[in-house]
Amino acid sequence: MKNLKNWLLLMLFSLVSTVAFSQTKITGTITDGELKGSLPGASVIVKGTNEGTTTDFDGKFTLTTNAKSGELIISFIGYASKTVTFKGESGKTVNIGSVELQSDSNTLEDIVVVGKGVIDLAKDRRTPIAVSTIKASEIQAKVGSADITQTLVNTPSVYVAGQAGGFGDSRVNVRGFAQDNTAFLLNGQPINGMEDGKIYWSNWSGMSDIANGIQIQRGLGSSKLAISSVGGTVNFITKATDKRQGGFASFGLANNDYFKSTIGYNTGMNAKGWGMSVMFTHWQGDGYNYGTKGEGQSYFISVGYQPNSKHNFNFLLTGAPQEHDQNFTKTIKTYLDKGRRFNDNWGTLNGKYLSERTNFYHKPVANFNWDYTISDKTQLSSVLYASWGRGGGTGNYGKSSAKLRTPDGQIDFDGIYAFNQTAPNGDGNPNNNYLIRSSMNNHSWYGLVSNLKTELTKNLNLNFGLDLRTYNGTHYRQVSNFLGLNSWTESRSLRDNTHQTVTPPVFNTVTDQMGTNPWTSMFNTTPENQRIDYDYSETISYGGLFGQLEYSDEKVSAFFQGAVSNQSHKREDRYDYLPQFKDSEKVNNWGYNVKGGGSYNITENNSFYVNAGYYSRQPYHDNVYLNFTNAVNPLSSNEKILGLEAGYSFKSKFLSANLNAYRTSWKDRVTTTSSTTTADGVIGTTPVAAGSLIYKTNQGVEQIHNGLELDVIAKPFSQLEIKGFASVGNWKYKGEVVTTQRDESLNTLDEKREDVDGGKVGDAAQTTFGAGFKYEIVERLSFDADWRNYSKLYANVGAVKDNLELPSYNLVDAGVSYKMLVGKDKKNSVQFRLNVNNLFNEIYLTELTSNIKTTANINNANPAQGTYQSTGRVYKGIADGNQGYFGFGRTWNVTLRYNF
């Protein structure tokens, strides 16, 4: 019996030992194949079993299985699943290394991502910020015939709306801050205008074809550059040179005769490390609103060279020459009489269509990237870039009463032409005649961004680098269409170094007429003696140093950043100043920012973060000088921005959710100064003579932006993905605004203070909600839809105590996609996409009359003050004669794409 008991114990011990030693331990890391960040919460399952796990916040996993060999199924929300084989050995750990998952679209696999240190992407919640990333697959599917900005609409606290009703006329607000207070980057290089911080999306119409991803860092962000991230930072990451040989052809149709064709080809990387990717696009359409025709092209050339494992080079050239007509400056009353698609900026001349409002521009952008792996612990990434912009916008010029209209409200160009031909010797002037002018905005911009990253310890990294830019812009007006005249003569008096007019009238006669072709404008510049109304240039130079120290381990991540910069301004006015006084005083401004934060992983699925930052931001060039003269604005000083943020994140196999809270204070704002010519009277206590030039400046206003943001992605089963977001903001003015009036010698004549405390900030909806889903009906056939609600939208009238709240509204977008595999080996594919979008161009108000400032007076507002009613909504406008626009619209587009 004793021997039997010992034998049984021996058998049991052997069985346990066999089971223990037969188990296989597998480790690895799961990453994003496009943006190279870790994928926390990715699912790893042994095929054919219920054995599995999820990755931690660094994308790492450890899995123990009884199988000695087999396959791992790796999946993550929004990415294509991947199968990896493994083969284990008793008592040893199998490390499958780093596994990259690609987004649902496989058309952008194997992209060479260059400038990694410069592009400066945040790694999800390992960087303690509020961040959202839009993949190439979603951009390709949903942009259709719209601007690239349309892909941002399902992001919390991001508001996208139209401006002038034409192609490329959209705008973006982030957390209630307009585009000049949101930093936009192209592969890490800044693209906001250096004069005023603005950005015009018509110049970037090709972005949707070349974008590999978009990352929106709301609030302070993680960018190390000393840029104007008051609202946030939006970084567009373009494709570089594709390693895979092949290409695609795409054709799209949309409403109102829109057509777009695109072709691209990749040579692939050869044995010597060279490769090239090229793409060309042509588009044209009539526009949703009448008189908003548009046409343009875009091109993309990328050449890559990787001589060895240490060096990676890439040269990129892209541009999007275009011209599009606009739906500008109308009262809401116009829509009452003519309908919402009516546009009174166009007419016919000799039976041919002609618009008074055309935007035309060509802005090639080139950059040269160099990534240098100095050692296993140190990498240098640099980009040298340049852009050359040429073009402008047309508009009316001359005597307003000479602008004739037909009975149906269109411009009577035939009547204007006939009247102009009665001018003596065909020479027109501003007092009697009318023509179409072009306001030109030409520039040359060169810059360098370089970043060195070194690993000090296993958990501690140091980044530091520089940001250098130089910009020269030239602004003038030229004649676009004489409308029957042979020449144009105008006069002006010249200024001296006191900025006062000191000469008798000087006459200027021009005979050249320049068109609106963006290709022609790129290579032809109007001579100085053929420019009208104004002609000036500015040179802006910028130099910045930045640094970041970052710590990271399994539980904690923390960073501290700092940047300091100097910006210099100089102006040259050739039109309104005597030659010896055409150069302005040079102005230098220093600025800086500091920010820091940290995140903590509570569990594998839960984490939270906090951060704070302070900016001392230099004023834009347009605020440095008074009302586009050489006079330096004495009130211009650095704006001060203080940001505080906190957030919580949850990630699991089926659900991902992020909650953010923020508070941003923006102080010491100085708006661009305006000027008026007075009649006899008194300003303050000072008598002024008729014809005196008076400068008016608004300053001192402070904005406080508080809010909460939520975004959720759920995938209850493999065929269904559900998304949702919400943002609730409370954006108000604080304190009072100071209005100062000065004479031409900059003597203060009057100073008024107005209480605006508690007034609502306009121009973007403060509360937004949205939800959407994507359902795969069968393999490669899917349907998706998105709904959004916008409310707490106030008029864009600046700092006022009582602002007008516009009614809330809803938008719904929907689409269907199908992908068919073709060819002998099924490596080629044909993709079909149908989109239906509801768009809204909200009323733009420049002035409010007293009796329609609140919704309580909605029923008392009369048509002359711009009441407009449509589909049950009532929109309050402005007094007849002031500026404004309005428009709802439904658009559709179909895209067919062949990948080979």
From TrEMBL:
This is TonB-dependent receptor. Residues 124-233 form the TonB-dependent receptor plug domain. The keyword Transport applies. It is a multi-pass membrane protein. The keyword NAD does not apply. It comes from Flavobacterium cerinum. Residues 321-839 form the TonB-dependent receptor-like beta-barrel domain. It is found in: Cell outer membrane. Belongs to the TonB-dependent receptor family. Keywords: Cell outer membrane, Membrane, Receptor, Signal, TonB box, Transmembrane, Transmembrane beta strand, Transport. Residues 1-22 form the signal peptide. Coiled coil: none annotated. Pfam families: CarbopepD_reg_2, Plug, TonB_dep_Rec_b-barrel.
